[in-house]
Specification:
single chain; about 150 residues; mainly alpha; flat
Length: about 150
């Protein structure tokens, strides 16, 4: 049941990325789906922390249903999302130096913050990329700690 809680957390995060793409690239209002996704992530983390994994099935069904409803919201936007995944990976990992520094900035976010301030005057685009990655790293580490401590304690 612990694995179901973790899988549901990842699936709900994927659903949030999916609807964020639809919100940015289509003219549809997906605020309901985004708000339910945020509530579902929060409740899933609380459920994992409480050790009551039986309700994780509800979050799992909600995430699957909302991903399927994405095609009803915008079929062309959903198809565009799935066709953009491959080119996104290609552009993100074509420059190994930037990919390495972005990964370092996300995993070790104090290093990303230091890279941001050290390179701000020399190369502003590189500094902004490291800064954004470090902010995502802070969010990632916070959610990861919440999930791990919720499962362990």
């Amino acid at each position: 049941m612990v694995a179901l809680g973790v899988v549901t957390l990842l699936l709900t995060s994927y659903m949030m990325v999916f609807y964020a793409y639809l919100a940015k690239h289509t003219d549809r209002d997906v605020s309901f789906f985004m708000s339910v996704g945020i509530i579902s992530i929060f409740m899933n983390l609380c459920t994992n922390a409480g050790g009551n994994f039986g309700i994780a099935w509800a979050y799992f069904v909600i995430a699957l249903a909302f991903i399927a409803l994405g095609f009803a919201v915008s079929k062309s936007g959903s198809v565009a999302f799935y066709t953009s995944i491959g080119p996104w990976f290609k552009t993100q990992f074509s420059d190994l130096k930037s990919a390495g520094f972005n990964t370092l900035s996300a995993v070790v976010f104090p290093a990303g913050i230091a890279l941001f301030f050290a390179n701000y005057k020399k190369d502003r685009a590189f500094a902004n990329a490291c800064g954004k990655a470090s902010l995502w790293g802070i969010l990632l580490w916070g959610l990861l700690l919440w999930a791990i401590l919720g499962l362990v304690l």
